Amino acid sequence: MSSRPIDVAVVGGGMGGLCAAIGLLKHPNLRVQIYEAAHQFSEIGAGVAVGPNAQRALKLIGDSTEAAYLRLATHNKWEKHANTFFEYRMGMGEKEGELIVAPKNETGQATVHRAKFLEEFIKLVPKEVCHFGKRLDRIEELEGGRIRLHFHDASTAEADCVIGADGIHSVVRKHLLGDDPAANAVFTGSVAYRGLVPMENAVAEIGEEFATNSFIWCGDGASVTTYPVDEGKTFNIVAINSSYEKWEGPSVVKADYSKIAHEFGGWGEHVTKIIKLLDTDETAAWSMWDMPPASTYCARTIAMIGDAAHACLPFQGQGAGQSIEDAFVIESVLGLVEKPEELAYAFRAYDRIRRRRTQEVVKTSREMGEILALRLPAIKNNLDAFKENVQWRMDWMWHRDVDGERREAEIVFNRLRKGQSID
Question: Which Pfam families match (predicted)?
Fold first, then answer.
């Protein structure tokens, strides 16, 4: 056993970074510090989906993280929609309004307000381990195995290992992958128009059932997702045009409503009413990016989690969930480390268990966008094939044994510790 706690630096204080830090704080062998680029913890966006798999991971990280979720979770309002994830319906053409599929799970559609969820997590982390205004510039690997972090404000910090939770523009990822093209996120051809509307306005426009429960409207080259957030006080709209060829400029910009109205001009009456609700100054256009598959999520005593490792499109509601699963597995295996020389084994175990699943989620999330836009070659307008595919993929996503992943990672770690092969 090491004579001192092992220093763990978590770069990034978003959902994945905070979940990892909260888990790491349980282990007396570890000393955790969080370095956040912003001057305070913050999240942009409104609703974030928390599927059954993510809910199980939150409980496994700790009772406090599960409790934070339970305090804020917003579900479908109507009893008949209680266990429904989304109702997928046609949004245009002769079959406008037709129900395609309504996959169900034990908790139905569950969302939390992203910023409020983060506020709950912040309460679980001691203030003295949080360092703000620390935008990472570069990583220096020192002789003897320590890591030195160089920040934009000219300050530095050292640790025995680094967990990069620094998002889609990750500096940690670029350090790990170097000149590999996979070091950088790629534009996916989709742009999301996101808006938040007072629930009473949405009910007046489209009726209570459609406003207070979760729906996805599918059509040629695009989709429109709606669901309640913030304990049902707010109606969240995500209208996604999946037919862009390129994106230039900032990744998020103020939206031009006339452009949105034009792009969704051929849709049916119901979606047209939803699109009209986006005619506000607050509506934003978000370019949508994901990560190419990386050859590894770690090197020596540096690893990456969450969007830094596997940013994905939102079509399966798994971005936050995969970050939370990562956090649970990585904090669990680091809890077994007795000396700095074993850190690389822990990160290799994490990589071995998490990389395949998360990269499959990235791939299938892209596919799901194509399904919703009615242009996946094997499905297109075949609604029976649509139904079968969506039901299968969501079952695969939700029913992962997250604690089983932890056990597998611990087995890999112990084999590496003993000098045994894992191939």
Answer: FAD_binding_3 (PF01494)
> Would the pTM count as exceeding 0.70?
yes
Which residues on adjacent β-strands are paired with residue 99?
89
For 246, the 3-state DSSP assignment is: coil
- Rounded to whole angstroms, the Cα distance separating 41 from 67 reads 20
Whether residue 146 contacts residue 156, with contact meaning beta carbons closer than 8 Å, is answered with no
Q: Which of 194, 355, 393, 400 is flagged as catalytic? A: 194
pLDDT digit string, tens, across residues 1-52: 556 899 999 999 989 999 999 999 999 999 999 999 887 765 555 678 889 9
Instruction: Give one word for 207, left, alpha or beta, with left for phi > 0 and alpha for psi -120 to 50.
Output: left
Query: Could you tell me which residues come within 8 angstroms of residue 89 by beta carbon, excluding any fewer than 6 positions away?
Result: 97, 98, 99, 100, 215, 216, 217, 218
Quickly name the fold that domain 188-290 has: D-Amino Acid Oxidase; Chain A, domain 2 (3.30.9)
pLDDT in tens, 125-148: 999 999 989 999 999 999 989 999
CB 285 within 8 A of CB 292: no
Of 228, 18, 224, nearest to 109 by C-alpha is: 228
Whether the per-residue pLDDT at 397 is higher than 80: the answer is: yes
Residue 286: both structure tokens together: 């978000």
Q: Which residue has the tokens 């077994």?
A: 336
Q: Which residues touch 202 (CB under 8 Å, ≥6 apart)? A: 211, 226, 235, 277
Q: What is the mean pLDDT of residues 314-335?
A: 95
Q: Where in the chain is the domain with CATH 3.50.50.60?
A: 6-75+113-185+292-417
Q: Could you tell me how many helices (H) and strands (E) the chain has, helices first?
A: 14, 20
Active site residue 194: yes
Tell me how crowded residue 375 is: count the other CB atoms within 10 A of its CB: 15
* Structure tokens that stand for 121 in this block: 């997590």
Residue 177 has pLDDT above 90, yes or no: yes
Rg (C-alpha) for the chain, rounded Å, is 22
Sheet holding 74-75: strands in order across? 47-49, 110-113, 74-75
User: Sheet of 252-254: strands edge to edge?
Assistant: 99-101, 87-90, 215-219, 222-229, 234-241, 186-198, 284-290, 252-254
What number does CATH give the domain 6-75+113-185+292-417? 3.50.50.60
CA–CA gap between residue 107 and residue 51 (Å, rounded) = 8
Tens of pLDDT along 242-278?
A: 999 999 989 999 999 999 999 999 999 999 999 999 9
Tokens of 333: 């295996």
